[in-house]
Amino acid sequence: MFTRIAQPSLSAQLTWSPAVAILGPRQIGKTTLARALLDSHTDAIYLDLESPQDQARLGEGPLFLQAHADQLIILDEVQNAPGLFSVLRGEIDRLRRPGRFVLLGSASFELLRQSQSLAGRLSLIDMFPLLVDEVGSDQHTLQILWLRGGFPPSFTAVSEQASWAWREAFIRHLLNTDLPALGLNVDTTSLSRFWRMLAHVHGQLFNASAIANSLDVSAPTVTRWLDHMVGALLVRRLEPFHANLGKRLVKSHKVYVRDSGLLHSLLGLTSVADLQGHPMTGASWEGFVIDHIAAHLPAGAIMSFYRTAAGAELDVVVESGQHIIGFEIKFSVAPKVSKGFWQSLKDIQPHKTYIVAPVQERWPFAEGVEVIPVGDIASVFATPQR
Length: 386
What we know:
This protein is of the alpha/beta class.
C-alpha cells in the first residue's frame, strides 16, 4: 500500500468531524485507505453498500447505527443508498461525537446532492490518482506514472501491456455500467465517441457546438454529458480567471481527462515511445501537472487559467486568500516562455510564478519566477507566500 497524501487529512478530520466523506473515482484507492482504518481501529466496521449481504446487515439503518454507536462505521459506495443520509443526520444529531462515520463515494455530484441533509455534520476529502509524492520522483518512476496514470492497478501492473489491458477494461466498465448507473443514459457508442473527443481536445477551450455537430446532437446535450463526466470525477473543467483588469478575457473553460493513463488509452498511446513527439504530448504533460497542483491546493484555494484575446496566457492561476500563485507548464528540460507569459504576469501580478517542467531539480528562471520539477509542487503550497 502506498502512503497516500489523503491519509493525514483523514486522520485529522476524524478527530473533530462526526462524518468524513472520501470522494474519488472507482479503483482510485478509497477502499484501501479506509480499510487501513480497520487496522488502527479495532472496533471499526466496514460495509460495502454494493454488496446485498452488507445491505442486509445494515437493514433499515437506525437500529444498526444505534447498536454500534461506539464504533467507527465505514460505508463504501454510499451513493447507492440515498435514503441513508437522512438516517445518518438523525443519528449524528442524537449522538454528536467525532469519528463516527467514514463515507466513500465514486460520484461527487450524486454524493454531494444526497448529502445536503448532512450540512455542518460532514467534512470532505478528495482522493486523487497516485502522485509523484506517493510513488517516487526519480525519472524512471515519473515516466511510468505519467504513461500509466495514477490508478493503482494500472500503475503497479506487471507490464505496459497489462496496464493497458486494465485501463481498456476499466473504460469499458465505466461506459457500460458506472456512467449509466449515475444517470447518463446514452448509448455506449455515442458516449465512447464523446469521451474520445474530449481526449482530443484535452487542454483546449471547450466548444460544445463543434462536438455536438460531430455527434449529431445538440450543444445542451453535450454540455449535460460533460457535467456527468465531471461529476463522475473523470474529467476536469478548468474555469478561466476572472478579475476586473480591464482586459478582454477568454470566457470559455478548458477540459482535461483527469488521469493521464486514461487519456493515453483514449488516444491510443501505449508506450513512452508513443509519447515522444506526439502532438498531444505537451497537453498530456499539462494535465498531469494540473492533477498534482489540484491535489495540493490549500483549503479554500481557487484554481483557474488566464488568457486574454490579445494573447496573454498563464496555464494555472491559484488564488489562495490574498495571494496569487502562477504556474506555467512546459514539457522541456530547458523551458522557454513566450511574450504572452510575461504579459500575463504584468496583468495579474502573482506573488510568485513557477514553471513546472520534467527536470530533476529547481532553479531560478527570472525575478519572481522559478523552474521546478513536478515533485516540488507540494512545497510551493507548504511554504508561506510573501
